[in-house]
Amino acid sequence: MCLAAATLAVGLGGCRSTGVNVSVEKIAASEIPREFSKVSMPAHVVEPPDILLVEVLEALPGRPISGERLVRPDGTITLGFYGDIYVAGLTLDEVKEKIVLHLRNFLNDEVLGLYRSNPETGEPEPVKPADSDRVFVDVVAYNSKYYYVQGDVAAPGRLPITGNETVLDAIQFAGGLLPTASPNDVRLVRPAPPGACCEQVLPVSITSIIYDGDPSTNYQLLPGDRVVVMRDPSVRVTAFLERVTTPINYVLNTALTGAFAIQQFRFLSLPIGQFAGGFGGGFNQRPQADARATLTNPTGPAN
After folding, report:
1. Given a cut of 80, is residue 235 above it in pLDDT?
2. Alpha-carbon dihedral of residues 164, 169, 174, 178, nearest 10 degrees?
3. What homologous superfamily does CATH list for 51-141?
């Protein structure tokens, strides 16, 4: 399915690493999985750090095999006494088959369910290891497959995929759009699978999805998808101007602060007598002169 999606991307819009390269009209007429036309995911491929459940109905006495097994970073799981098995890159059927074949070193084929009686002839007949009814393998936690939500959302990051998510689900799980987001400038970036030539960049109109009920761009998410919410152009311009003017304002404020500090330093460095002569002396000279004239001529100052 991934290869078909990548091939479809080439036919619709060509190969480009940036920008939206497919129009909404072409998408509406395409078979890209979306809200009301979802497809089943391919068989899960086990990778770290998935958690597997492995159970063997009959094992060696005191050496049971039952419980959850973490897929380690090196791609192996442990069966305890029975050793380790490399399972990365395998489907569940392949993992089960590999476990059964590995356990043949410790248990006989009958215990492992590799033979069963033919209901018609009553004769024993071989059973494929993947079809054994004595060994069970399942996935408890799908931890290795993710999609990403980036941009102007409340909680950007990596989210596990279950196979049923759409773009709208991804944005809701990420906390919704921020006030600075542009609802009509959202895109789904789908990396090219191995063997394909280029990635797929698809436009998303959140406004149409929510307010018009139009599912044309509400795509079903695949492992590795990136949902990118762009910022509103006016907010981007404001942020750009702020980045440009902030250094200038810093320099001007620093210069003004320095000039003010120098002026204050000069003011405080003046002699105290100059303060008295320039300020206090000017106010006190006339009263002192009047006092001396009163002592010389008690009848009052001469005209």
Report:
1. no
2. 160
3. wza like domain (3.30.1950.10)
